[in-house]
Every structure is written in C-alpha cells, then in structure tokens.
Amino acid sequence: MRRDLETGLLRAFVTVVDAGGVTAAASVLGLSQAAASQQIKRLEEMLECTLFERQGRRLVLAPAGERLLAQARRLVAQNDELLAAMRTPPFEGEVRFGIPYDIIGSFVPPILRRFAKAQPRVRVSLVCEDSKVVRAALRSGGVDLALTTETECGRHGETLRTDRLVWVGAAGGDAYLKDPLPVSLGAPTCTFRPVAVEALGRARRDWRAVCEVSRLEPVYAVLEADLAVAPLLRSSVPERFEILGREARLPTLPEFRINLYAPPGLSPAARDLADHVRASFSKGYADN
C-alpha cells in the first residue's frame, strides 16, 4: 500500500534540527511543544525509524535522521516553491536587471532559471557592469533593480549575504612570489580595485597592473597563465583556481556585501524577480 509523506511533518523535523530543539521549533512553527513533539513522533512512526537521540540534555540526529535531513529540506523547499508559483499571478513585460561581472556567473543563473519557470511571459534584460555603474543606472532609470557587491549598503538596499574578498591565483602557480606583485585589478570603476590597492599600500607591497578590465574572461585568462593574482569574492572563485592563504604573505582583504536594490514603485514583474532573488539567497540556492 502506497503512503504519502506529509510536508508538515517534514517541516517540523527540519525546524527542530535548525532550531536545536523541540521547544524552540514549536515557537517557530506556531505550535505547542506537545504538538511539535507529536509531529516528530508521527513522522518516526511513518518512516519506522528513530530520527533523534538524546545526548544528556541535547537532542541530536540519529543515523536515520542524518539520512533524511537533506531530502527533507529539498521536499519542503519544493513544496514552498510550488505554492508560491501557483499563487503568483502571471506577469508580462520586461525587467531590466543590473548585475556586476564578479557575481553574475556564480549566483545569477539559478535565480533566472527559477524565475523563467515561474514567469515565462516576462523577459529579463541583463545589464552587466561594475557595481558603481549598476547603481548609477538604477538612479537614472536604466535598470529596474540591481544586485551589487559593496563594502556598505546604500538607500533602498538590503544585504543578502556577506563574503570575504580573497587573493586568487593559478593552482600551483608562483605569481604571488614575484616582485613587484603582478595584479589584475579590474577597471577604475571596479569596487574591488581601491580596496586591493589600499591593502597593498598598507602592506608596503610593490605591485604592477597586468589586467585592468572588469570582464572576467580576460581576468581568468591571466590567472590561468599564472601571470598575476586577483582579488575575487571567495564564493565566486572557480574550482580551477587557488585561494591564496597566509603562506602567500598577501595582505588580508575585507568582507563585501552582496546587496539587492529594489526601489519603491517597481512593476509587479520586477517585484516578483526581487522576491526570487531574496528566496534564492535565503534558501542557499544562489550558489547551486
């Protein structure tokens, strides 16, 4: 006999894990502690296994719970996505989305893929420039909403994630040993450029510019050839490159914010795309 899992039970299970206990999870779920405990018990009975074990006063995952967790998260997320898609009215038109070069490849494709499925009649036009240029386009009306990388967050902006700027080089390369240090710094409008120059100045490290464009294809080419190092966000570093650690003796770089700017007066389609961006970052989809 086929049995169907209840999403509510899986949600209770995931919430207990994330909250660190039944009492805290009950508050998040809007249930009494007894009701939350009963949902976990029902799920265990349905799966015919024990999901949690007690270690002293702590509740920890049992082996079966560890196996279930990733799939439970996925099913709950799919449930929420389906409900959101069915409840969202169909929009038409165009949304102009401004994004800097440094994060478009690592964060944007899954966002656009999900939005296209939810709103197939909306055309998204990408404006890819440095964050400063994207912010200027937002102010002038050249784009409807924008995703940026900045050290701070401006008016009408919200920070979706923080990420550290790191030095990157070729795997097994030695460009970081050269003096002066060969660096790919991006165009004058690149937000990483002044930060990297300031850090090198504080460290009294002589340097020379090898590549001064923000488009990533030439930057990656220079890195692969081991002709220079470059500052990139840690989460956007392709696997073929190496994040240079302390042994490289390069100055530490600061954290940057990934900000979403969705000013008042957006069209319904633009507001929906902004919601997709927020959801992707909050659920960890943006880098999958």
Give the key terms:
2 domains; alpha/beta; seven-stranded mixed β-sheet; 9 helices; D-Maltodextrin-Binding Protein, domain 2; 11 strands
Structural overview:
The protein has 288 residues and is an alpha/beta fold. It folds into two domains: 7-87, Arc Repressor Mutant, subunit A, CATH 1.10.10.10; 93-288, D-Maltodextrin-Binding Protein, domain 2 (3-Layer(aba) Sandwich), CATH 3.40.190.290. It has nine helices and eleven strands. The chain has helices at residues 7-19, 22-29, 33-47, 63-87, 101-118, 131-140, 192-202, 216-224, 268-282, and strands spanning 52-55, 58-61, 93-99, 122-128, 145-150, 157-170, 181-184, 207-211, 230-233, 241-243, 255-261. Strands 3, 4, 5, 6, 9, 10 and 11 form a seven-stranded mixed beta sheet that branches. The chain has a two-stranded antiparallel ribbon with strand order 1-2. A hairpin with a 2-residue loop joins strand 1 (52-55) and strand 2 (58-61). Helix 1 packs across helix 3 (33-47), helix 2 (22-29) crosses helix 3 and helix 5 crosses helix 9. The longest helix has 25 residues, at 63-87.
Task: Give a short summary of the structure.
The protein is an alpha/beta fold.
